[in-house]
Structure formats: C-alpha cells, structure tokens
User: Which sequence fits this backbone?
C-alpha cells in the first residue's frame, strides 16, 4: 500500500523475498535509487566445510544485487556483495569495516 511518493528520496533498498519461501529473486531498482539487495529464503543445505573438507548441514541463503552502472562500477558492486556475504558467513568480520 506504499505510494510511489513515499518511496522517493532513497538511495539503497534491501528486500526479502525469502519470507514468501522464494530461494532467489532478481531485484528491480526503484526509480532514483542506486542499488537494491535481495535476500532469498534461508534453507538447510549440505555444505563442504572449507577447513575440514567434511560435508555439514548449514543455513544457506541466496543474495542478489542489482545496481545502476551509471553510479556504481561493476567491480565495486561485486565486491560489496562479496563483503555482505562474508559478514553473513562470519559476523565478526563486520567489526573490520
């Protein structure tokens, strides 16, 4: 029920399609914004532990970032997405930023 005028003036949006049970989505940038980050559903999945090489069950989500290349260089956008993923994987790394 949010009106377009109420969404004006933003620069970045975070959206969550996971609440609808959707694993991934392709977010569309709102007019006037530079980027939007989409979180998918969190599901338990088999994952190879990088330290031990063993298969373990982990909570896994999919992230998607859409950004306006007139504002954000592709490399910077990709690094940002990798940084967000890294902080979700190991929240203590957020203290390094």
Assistant:
């Amino acid at each position: 029920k949010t009106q377009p005028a109420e969404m004006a003036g933003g620069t970045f949006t975070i959206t969550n399609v996971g609440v609808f049970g959707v694993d991934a989505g392709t977010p569309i940038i709102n007019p006037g914004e530079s980027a939007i980050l989409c979180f998918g559903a969190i599901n338990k999945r088999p994952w190879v532990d990088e330290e031990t090489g063993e298969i373990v069950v982990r909570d896994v989500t999919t992230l998607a970032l859409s950004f306006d290349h007139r504002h954000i260089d592709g490399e910077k956008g990709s690094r940002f997405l990798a940084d967000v993923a890294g902080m979700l994987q190991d929240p203590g790394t957020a203290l390094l930023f």
Residues 14 and 21 are 17 Å apart (CA to CA). The radius of gyration is 16 Å. The chain has a mean pLDDT of 92. The longest helix spans residues 74-89.
